[in-house]
């Protein structure tokens, strides 16, 4: 008999990815969400998964065998209440993943404040390229698969370990459910301040996670990150392998060359040369991610030549330095960066890829943490990596008291005082007009937001194309992703 599952909040990245896994496993799958929008709605539609708009008790009339409630749902969610009233089995996203897809497989979990999506995606692709057919669930669309999850049939299952809470009835971070046999800790830095009021509480939670790794398991820990060094306890039962760049303990990488096509780097293990590798990614942050992946795959028995082929063939992740289009020599890049450190490293990476270009950063403060004043100075410093900066209005600013709210106007003024051309512009149409009329051939515009940002990418590309046409010249060919 075929099992059935209903997912409440199905269009979230994690929930939609889980729905795809259930579908691949042969379950009947349906779901609901208040906001049904691409790209997840498109991915689910391609899989033939029916989505109900909004939340209603009647959406459970089909009496599914299991109801998965996403962390978007509050305790008064009509479907969560109805499932309880009907006595239907209810679980969370992370628990469902662990119970139905991680059991009996080697769980490989990439966790950390930064880099976990890219690291998990690299792991999944490199294992696939090595013929190991891994399962995976990652918080971004892997371009190699055009998917965020895959069931796979091999021994490993790769998971992006999210530290955010699981559900209203389970306030643990998702990664506490993932039973890691191999864990990667990329970085530990203050984030999600609505859940972790200080860095000490965040470190405690990551410490609890890495203590889940059994004695026969492995922890790959980034020695270059001070937060990681402060988090990893000396009495950990698992084997700890440190990694980083340049000199230091454990597995180390050295950048040999970087440019528009990516970077070449050398890896040393235990003081000995292991090999030279090529990746289409750029930036020190990505080199750290690659180093961790190399060490994990070596431990799983993948040889250097196979590993090199896999890393070179990685096509990236949607919304991670993703080129959305180029019009008249102006390149528009989309990136999910929203923490000050991620903003800084993303801009530095784009400098390496687009040598000599004028770099324009367009930043939307959208996350709970980025909308608050706690990171005001850190964002200002990070954005000095760009030549020009546009700061949008704080998303849903009314939710935050003025005294606690990030001040984009002051940030723009501070950047100008430090020699960076900056402006604060509230609305997307005005930002688009400003950029379209002031950018020049060779500019790279980096749009930094974890949300849709009003469709600014396509609006900007269209505006650039129209402007070229009205200049009395044929509009240049517009290339878009």
What's the SSE blueprint?
Layout: E1 4-8, H1 13-24, E2 28-33, H2 40-46, E3 50-53, E4 66-69, H3 78-86, E5 90-92, H4 93-102, E6 106-111, H5 116-129, E7 135-142, E8 147-150, E9 156-161, E10 165-167, E11 170-173, E12 182-185, H6 199-210, E13 218-222, H7 226-231, E14 239-245, E15 251-259, E16 262-269, E17 272-279, H8 284-299, H9 304-312, E18 322-327, E19 330-335, H10 340-353, E20 359-363, H11 376-383, E21 388-391, H12 408-417, E22 421-424, H13 428-438, E23 444-448, H14 456-470, E24 479-480
Parallel strand pairs: 1-2, 1-4, 2-3, 4-5, 6-9, 6-12, 7-9, 12-13, 13-14, 14-15, 19-23, 20-21, 20-23, 21-22
Antiparallel strand pairs: 7-8, 10-11, 15-16, 16-17, 18-19, 18-24
Helix pairs in contact: 1-2, 1-4, 5-8, 5-9, 10-11, 11-12, 13-14
Describe the structure.
32% of the residues lie in helices and 26% in strands. It is an alpha/beta fold and 481 residues long. The chain folds into 3 domains: 4-92, 3-Layer(aba) Sandwich (Rossmann fold), CATH 3.40.50; 104-312, UDP-N-acetylmuramoyl-L-alanine:D-glutamate ligase (3-Layer(aba) Sandwich); 322-480, Protein-Tyrosine Phosphatase, Chain A, CATH 3.90.190.20. The strands form 4 sheets. It has a 10-stranded mixed beta sheet with strand order 8-7-9-6-12-13-14-15-16-17, sandwiched between helices. It has a 7-stranded mixed beta sheet with strand order 22-21-20-23-19-18-24, with helices on both faces. Helix 2 links the parallel strand 2 (28-33) and strand 3. The longest helix has 16 residues, at 284-299. It is globular. It starts with a strand and ends with a strand. Mean pLDDT is 90; it is low at 472-481.
